[in-house]
Amino acid sequence: MRVLVTGGAGYIGSHTLVELLALGHDVCVLDDFSNSSPVVIDRVHDLSNGRVILVEGDVRNDDTLKALMQDFRPEAVIHFAGLKAVGESMARPISYYDVNVNGTLRLLRAMDKVGCKKIIFSSSATVYGEPQYLPYDEAHPLNPTSVYGRTKMMSEQILADWAGSDGRAAILLRYFNPVGAHASARLGEHPDGPPNNLMPFIAQVAIGKRARLAVFGDDYDTPDGTGKRDYIHVVDLARAHVSALDYAVENNGSQAFNIGTGASLSVREMVAAFEAASGKTIPCEVTKRREGDIASMQADPSLANEKLGWTATHDLNDMAQSAWAWQSANPDGYSKS
Length: 337
Ligand code: NAD
Ligand code: UFG
Fold this sequence. Notes:
By secondary structure, this protein is α/β, with parallel strands linked by helices.
């Protein structure tokens, strides 16, 4: 298939490119490199037999989209491009609505002009908000507590309305917590500045970039008092997109899927796994809770298991090992090819 991947140079996008190329898809990447580097594309090529067509540009630029759609004529789009930091979304709400919601709208309009009817969208478990029950299933009410979460919920609504007619399909993948890296240690997550997320922060402590991990509260109602999340290996997540593509071809309308393992792990369990994988001690200091954090999140992934034929296969050890291999081989991220 001809697949347009917006944000394909990013953390999740780059791992998905490798999977798509391995299956022989024709891939075009649209990325403005606002949170990534062209070096990522070189590395994807090193790891693959195929090559992607790269268009550097903003997903909100109508002229860029028009030219790309007319030249490449995608049969499907995987839409990763967006802003993703929860804290920053509260400080810069208009940027977040513009890139995430307006960007999605413009993309759909450009798709309509060339009759492209299938889209896979990067949504997030954060659309659910404070759990009314766990694990979350897809019928759990949506009540996001951040601007970021609201941009994802609004985009989902737009996509569902768009997919309501004419043989269109919108697959809304609600990711839980992606971690880990490609087995080659050539692709991984490289946050700009101090990491907001747990796994990259632990990895930077392990290589001595940061002195200690701040554990955001150990008085939650969880077995060890620290927050619990459903961590999912990024390669499993990448493969979910390939399964979702097949599903979108076969089905019309919109459908949301939880993409998680169905298990949840505490901050302390993540630290212990990383210590075992790296052989390093991770100094920790318990601090106060981070504002807006939820005690526990856990996916019910059974709908994705059943309808997409997709299941997570990597375990916690794979997540920690691959994150450590990536971090130790690339202490400065994508600084060189
Ligand atoms: P990322 O920042 O690594 O990748 C996003 C990519 O999009 C980057 O390459 C960036 O340069 C590009 N981009 C940003 N704005 C753009 C624009 N206006 N035009 C063109 N390109 C643009 O993020 P990621 O972790 O790979 O996440 C991908 C998607 O998944 C995002 O939509 C994110 O909100 C969503 N998501 C991520 C997580 C997570 O924890 N990583 C969890 C749930 C959902
Ligand atoms: N944590 C720490 N110290 C840190 C960072 C995190 O103790 O330095 C804890 C948090 O309190 C939480 C857990 O580690 O209990 C995971 O935190 P992350 O920031 O890694 O992940 P979140 O679940 O808060 O959020 C992430 C993404 C969101 C996305 C969500 C989906 O940042 O964009 O997963 O589940 F929406």
